[in-house]
Amino acid sequence: MMESISPVTIWFAVGVILLVLEMFTPGFFLASVAVGAFLASATARLGGEPIYQLLAFIIGGGISLISIRPVFKKYLQANGAKTNADGMIGKYSVVQNNVNSNEHFYSKIDGVSWDCLCPDSLSKGDKIRVISLDSTVLITEKMESK
């Protein structure tokens, strides 16, 4: 059966498989290698011998790794925006109940109740600010009343 499949099809299928696998891995490594596979497929389509197909694969993939991969990584990387609990650092809330020092309490921030902890005693109506995160517990500080 393998003798009925042309090298063009094989190289093209390898390129497509590498692109699909790239969706599950970070870094654009497999996509760069896929470029080499597509070049090898084009070489086979133009009637190139297997050694030239292999050279096209190696050279195309290598050039892609060196030139295209860094560009994609630069423009498509995460921008470092904080999300979920990390995004709460620096936000403010108002305490709804009296709280003893180092006692867990819940406070709403952006409409969501969060488990909070404060080293100071708090009274209902005190303003707090999130200063850090301990797992999913927001560590807060009491804001001075003006």
Brief summary:
The chain has 2 domains: 2-76; 84-142, Beta Barrel (OB fold (Dihydrolipoamide Acetyltransferase, E2P)), CATH 2.40.50.
Task: Characterise this structure.
The protein has helices at 7-22, 29-45, 50-76, and strands at 92-94, 105-109, 112-117, 127-134, 137-142. The protein starts with 6 loop residues before the first helix and ends with a strand. Helix 1 (7-22) packs antiparallel against helix 2 and helix 2 (29-45) runs antiparallel to helix 3. The protein folds into two domains: 2-76; 84-142, Nucleic acid-binding proteins (OB fold (Dihydrolipoamide Acetyltransferase, E2P), Beta Barrel), CATH 2.40.50. The longest helix is centred in the middle third of the chain and has 27 residues, at 50-76. Strands 1-4-5-3-2 form a five-stranded mixed beta sheet, with no helix packed on it. The protein has 146 residues and is an alpha+beta fold.
